[in-house]
């Protein structure tokens, strides 16, 4: 038995293996969790029933009709937020740090379901390869472009595969460009005999790192920090 959604697409339920064990009382792994606590990640919305049989909100498939919720909702009410990493970053260590200790099971208190370093690195490499050729322009692209990658599909059931969205949906963004300007400011003078810029005599200099965040849509500088570098 199957049915189509209002957009005429036929989508899978939460259990994609075809097994019927989810109906057994003891098989709690394949059923959604009752969080009974505040949300710690937007992608925990994946545990919410979508008022259709055998389906919760979908953050695991590329054809998900629910992906836009990641751009609509937020965990915080502040207009501007700092400290977020771009999904299009070229710095793999930043993505690796975010994904480290991600767990496949929300109720795991022992750490037994934390992804391995090999699984983590495979996901980071897949994401890096995608954004290197096709940069993401919204957070939902993380789902539509990465969900079908082998590094994600091998993680297990729906809850396990959603760990990627749980890890990245709140810590990453695509709207701001984060730039680092390496600036050396020199002071000095031109002697009377100088005939070109090359004749400038340096009498002092200061090294700065200027961190700038620019809104990709409006071009507005939303934040900047100037750091003095002492070598």
Give structural notes.
With 231 residues, the chain is α+β, with helices and mostly antiparallel strands. The chain has two domains: 21-173, no CATH class; 176-229, no CATH class. It is 21% helix and 21% strand. It has seven helices and seven strands; from the N terminus they run E-E-H-E-H-H-H-H-H-H-E-E-E-E. The protein has helices at residues 69-72, 92-99, 117-133, 141-146, 150-153, 158-161, 163-168; strands at residues 49-52, 55-56, 85-86, 172-173, 176-189, 201-215, 221-229. It has a three-stranded antiparallel β-sheet with strand order 5-6-7, with no helix packed on it. Strands 1-2 form a two-stranded antiparallel ribbon. Strands 3-4 form a two-stranded parallel ribbon. The longest helix is centred in the middle third of the chain and has 17 residues, at 117-133. The radius of gyration is 24 Å and the shape is elongated. The N and C termini lie far apart (69 Å).
How are the SSEs ordered, and which strands pair?
Blueprint: E1 49-52, E2 55-56, H1 69-72, E3 85-86, H2 92-99, H3 117-133, H4 141-146, H5 150-153, H6 158-161, H7 163-168, E4 172-173, E5 176-189, E6 201-215, E7 221-229
Parallel strand pairs: 3-4
Antiparallel strand pairs: 1-2, 5-6, 6-7
Helix pairs in contact: 2-3
Strand arrangement in the largest pleated sheet: 5-6-7
Which ranges are low-confidence, i.e. pLDDT below 50, for 5 or more consecutive residues?
A: none
What percent strand? 15-25%
Q: What profile does the largest beta sheet have?
A: 3 strands, antiparallel
Gyration radius (Cα, Å) is 24 Å
Instruction: Tell me the number of structural domains.
Output: 2
Ends apart, CA distance between termini: 69 Å
Q: State the shape.
A: elongated
Structural class: alpha+beta
Number of β-strand runs: 7
Helix content: 10-25%
| Count of alpha and pi helical runs | 7
> What is the overall pLDDT average?
85
Give the SSE string: EEHEHHHHHHEEEE
């Amino acid at each position: 038995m199957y049915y189509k959604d209002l957009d005429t697409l036929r989508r899978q339920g939460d259990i994609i293996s075809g097994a019927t064990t989810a109906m057994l009382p003891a098989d709690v792994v394949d059923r959604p969790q009752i969080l009974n606590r505040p949300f710690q990640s937007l992608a925990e919305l994946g545990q919410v029933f979508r008022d259709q049989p055998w389906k919760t909100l979908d953050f695991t498939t590329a054809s998900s009709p629910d992906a836009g919720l990641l751009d609509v909702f937020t965990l915080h009410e502040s207009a501007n937020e700092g400290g977020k990493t771009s999904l299009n970053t070229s710095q793999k260590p930043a993505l690796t740090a975010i994904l480290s200790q991600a767990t496949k099971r929300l109720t795991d208190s022992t750490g037994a379901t934390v992804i391995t370093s090999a699984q983590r690195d495979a996901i980071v490499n897949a994401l890096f390869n995608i954004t290197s050729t096709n940069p993401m322009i919204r957070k939902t692209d993380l789902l539509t472009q990465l969900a079908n990658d082998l590094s994600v599909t091998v993680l297990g059931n729906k809850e396990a595969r959603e760990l990627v969205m749980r890890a990245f949906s709140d810590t990453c963004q695509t709207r701001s460009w984060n730039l680092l300007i390496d600036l050396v400011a020199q002071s000095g003078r031109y002697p009377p005999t100088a005939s070109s810029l090359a004749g400038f005599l340096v009498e002092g200099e200061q090294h700065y790192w200027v961190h700038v965040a620019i809104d990709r849509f409006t071009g507005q500088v939303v934040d900047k920090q100037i750091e003095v570098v002492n070598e």
